[in-house]
Amino acid sequence: MKTYNLCCISRIALPESLLEGVLEAVESSGTVLRKSEHQTNQGLRALDLQVSLSTDEAFFKQRLVELAHRWETDIALIPCDLKREDVRLIVFDMDSTLIRQEVINELARAHGVDGAVVEITERAMNGELNFDDALKERVALLKGLPRSTLEGIMTRLELSPGVSKLIREVQKRGVKTAIVSGGFQFFAENFRRQLGMDYVFANDLEVQDGLLTGRVQGRVINAQAKADIIEDLARKEGLSLDQVMAVGDGANDLPMLARAGLGVAYHAKEKVRREARHQVSFGDMTTLLYYLGIPGDHRDEAP
Which of these is catalytic: 48, 74, 95, 249? Predict the structure, then answer.
């Protein structure tokens, strides 16, 4: 038998019917070894069970997925031999993960080419197009955009709900944080400074005479690069990959999510939700604090 941490997190309070369904699933598949509850003024918001399963993990997990979607509640099944309390590095994708927007779509809108760019972005994030080709095609359409426009767009970008609290809480515990993005360095570096994060890796837009040239300079941060960077950062910090959490939403994040000990699809595209081991599909970023086993009433907050 293998033991797991089973986490259930609701945006307000866990429905009684969900709790009954989860406990029924556990009782038919194994044994509850330990239980931890997180109460709020609105009721029980999070439940953390340690369970020992005698049944097939995939079958049990499918039952949890059905319950999660029926009650719009995030549920994670994390093996206990993956010591979540030992996570010391969290790596975030930027666009539609750390922040709400897809920056390249905002740039395209400012340049009047958003129709073509938005369609390419959507297909690329769903894994329907080669990322490198899609990036070059979209950036080429930005040729002639004044660099000063980037500063105006930066002021309109919004952090995803709960990001600020998540970063503060893990930093208190000595966890390092990084942005590893297929987006753009100007924006990623601004968010790194704003949040006090440790590392940033993103694509660099080439500029000449104050205008974008329509080209990316240097190494393209694609799916393989993201996975490689996670390994490099773990090595630099003296960590095993089991001590790394990665968070992303697009198809180009899948290798990164697979490489990290805790890979989480955050409000992700369908392909990514299917393939990632863990998901946050309903709650905000503070849901990850419960996945890490960090106690408390982690309320949603303005970024």
Answer: 95
Residue 300 has pLDDT above 60, yes or no: no
Side chain identity at 63, as an amino acid letter? R
**Chain segment 166-210, per-residue pLDDT in tens:** 999 999 999 999 999 999 999 999 999 999 999 999 999 999 999
In this structure, are strands 89-92 and 278-280 parallel, antiparallel, or unpaired? unpaired
Q: What angle, 0 to 180 degrees and rounded to 10, lies between the N-to-C axes of helices 185-195 and 163-172?
A: 60
- Label the pairing between strands 199-208 and 211-217: antiparallel
95 is catalytic: yes
The single-letter code of the amino acid at 267 is: H
Whether residue 162 is predicted with pLDDT greater than 60 in this model: the reply is yes
**pLDDT value at 41 more than 70:** no
Classify domain 1-81 by CATH architecture.
2-Layer Sandwich (3.30)
Annotated active-site residue in 74, 93, 228, 284? 93
Residue 301 confidence (pLDDT) above 70: no
Q: Roughly what angle, to the nearest 10 degrees, separates helices 103-111 and 114-125?
A: 160
- Residues in a beta bridge with 50: 5, 34
Q: Are strands 211-217 and 278-280 parallel, antiparallel or unpaired?
A: unpaired
Burial class (CB in 10 A: 0-12, 13-18, 19+), 303: middle
Residue 297 bears catalytic tag: no
Residue 110 CB neighbours (<10 A) = 17
**How many Å apart are CA 174 and CA 29, to the nearest integer?**
37
